[in-house]
Every structure is written in structure tokens, then in C-alpha cells.
Amino acid sequence: MAAEPTISLADVREAAARLQGIAHRTPVLTSRTLNSLVGAEVFIKAENFQRIGAFKFRGAYNAIAQLSPDQLAKGVAAYSSGNHAQATALAARELGTSAVILMPEDAPRSKLEATAGYGAEVVTYDRYTQDRTALGHALAEERGLALIPPYDHPHVIAGQGTAALELLQETGPLDALVVPVGGGGLIAGSATAATALHPGIRVIGVEPEAGDDTKRSLESGTRVTIPVPRTIADGQALDTPGEITFPLNQRLVDGIALVSDAEIVTAMRFAFERLKIVLEPSGATPLAALLAGRVTDPPRRIGVIASGGNIAVDRFTALLAG
């Protein structure tokens, strides 16, 4: 049975206090051109400017900061396709501990190198034939490390929710919040904060078409497992929603929009040309959903969490050239 939701607005606010002066308070961007295309006021929380280039630093730091001194002395472990890997590595370094990170062997080289650059030991695996969760738990147990999962952890979820908390503090009430969905931690934390502050807000998740496990799960009422998706949105290439995140999202999320890889590239191009920012594919999916008209009956004021911008220049140019 799935774990009961355990996250509250108070948890998110405590995480925000813990992160104050540590995480960046990222900017909120607007564009008249985007507003005209969408037919609404759009406010983009640019987490590509967060430390390590993505929102993941928020959750990793919040979780590691609450470990006991004994646990910190032993070190931490994590598994991730890239952004949580970098976040855990940097947070561990900031908090004076060590990190061992399990990453897929086909993860973007820029993310592998950045993770190692923050001082972590990187261990690779085949994401298409091996179970990263099982491998991660085994690695942590074998070495006596505290496991910091990428999304299925109350402290990680609460940390991620601080992105939405900051957004709403700057914009005031919004009619809708559009958030990318991988394992569900960002949207679970964001929805926890947003719906507590503004009960009428619509929370809409966005997944790549090939990785629609959360959409299928919400429609069926239970966690569904799909083949590991092949999509340019590597940060959303998961096969099943989280055990902790799913019941939260069942209760708080209003729906899931799907976008194609081509629509993601269009959004990346728009962000670069019009907003003057670089977004990785996963970070561009909410913008893609808006530009492609996947958010039906667009409300008047929409918040978007652009979750990250970690992409190497050669891959970025290749995607946009294609």
C-alpha cells in the first residue's frame, strides 16, 4: 500500500528557512509575447538559475541538512539521471560530508562530469536493464550511507516545494500552476504549498508523451509501471510514480498534459530566443504545454516552474538544429 502523504505547508516553510542564504532565490520572468500567444499572464520561475542549474538542490540540501552528525560522518548516497546527482553532490560538500551517486551510463556527459566535479564518487548502471532503486538501496546498505532518493522522501519533497512558495510570494495569487513531472517530487511539494495558500488554484503536471506514467496512474487510481521511456527529456524518463509522491499528487493535482519531443524543442527555442534563457528538455516541458495549447481553458494568471537548464552546448545546438 502506498505511504500516506506526510507533507504540509509548514514543512515547506521550514525548508525555506533552512535554505535561506544557501539556495538561490531564482528570478520570475515574464514575456508579453508569451502572454499574447497563451492568452494569459504567465510567470516563469526560472530554476535554471538555481545552484547546480536546477531545482533539485532545494530538496537535496533540505534532506541532508536534517541528518544526524553520525550519519553525516558516514556519508550519503543517491541515484539520479543527473540533476539530483549534482544537487546531492553539492549539498553533501556544503554540509561537510561525502556522496556516492548511482547514475545511468547514458546520462548526459555534462551531468556526469559536473557530479564528479562537485566531489562525488559516481557509479554507473544500465537504466534499461537494471533497477536503480534496488541498486541504490543496496549500495547505501553495503557502505553504511544515508540514502537521499531523488523524489520519494518527505524532506526532499518539502524542499522542492519552496520553488512554488517563492513564486507565489512574488506573484500573489495565481489561477494555475504548471509543473514538470518526473518522479513527482517537484509537483507534490509545489502543489502542497500552492493549494494550501490558494485553495482554488489548478495544479497541472506536464510529462513527455513517451513517459506518461503519472498520467496513466492518476487515471487508473493506482501506480502504473511503463517501459523506461526514450525521450529527450531525460530528467522525466521514469517508469512509475513515487510511492510517497503519488498519493499526494492524487489528492492535489488536477491533471497531466503531455508534450512531444518536437514541442519540447520548440519551447527550448522560444525560451532561448524570447526569454534569453537556456532550458534543458525537462525544464522546458511546462512551457511546451502552454505553447502547444495542451493546457485547456487557460486561466488568467499562470505560474510555470522551468525546472532546470543543465544541457551541454553541443546537445542544445543539435536539438535546435534538428
Keywords:
322 residues, alpha/beta, six-stranded mixed sheet, 14 helices
Major β-sheet strand ordering = 1-2-10-7-8-9
Rough shape?
Answer: globular
Kindly state the mean pLDDT as a whole number?
94
Helix amount, in percent? Answer: 40-55%
- What structural class should be given to the helix and strand makeup? alpha/beta
Brief synopsis:
This protein is of the alpha/beta class. It has helices at 9-19, 32-38, 56-64, 69-74, 83-94, 109-117, 132-143, 154-171, 185-197, 213-220, 245-252, 261-275, 281-291, 313-321, and strands at 28-29, 41-46, 76-79, 99-104, 121-125, 146-147, 176-180, 202-208, 255-259, 301-306.
Structure description:
The chain is of the alpha/beta class and 322 residues long. Helix content is 46%, strand content 15%. It is built from 14 helices and 10 strands. α9 (185-197) links the parallel β7 (176-180) and β8. The longest helix has 18 residues, at 154-171. The chain starts with 8 loop residues before the first helix and ends with a helix. The model has no long low-confidence stretch (mean pLDDT 94).
Topology:
Elements: H1 9-19, E1 28-29, H2 32-38, E2 41-46, H3 56-64, H4 69-74, E3 76-79, H5 83-94, E4 99-104, H6 109-117, E5 121-125, H7 132-143, E6 146-147, H8 154-171, E7 176-180, H9 185-197, E8 202-208, H10 213-220, H11 245-252, E9 255-259, H12 261-275, H13 281-291, E10 301-306, H14 313-321
Parallel strand pairs: 2-10, 3-4, 3-6, 4-5, 7-8, 7-10, 8-9
Antiparallel strand pairs: 1-2
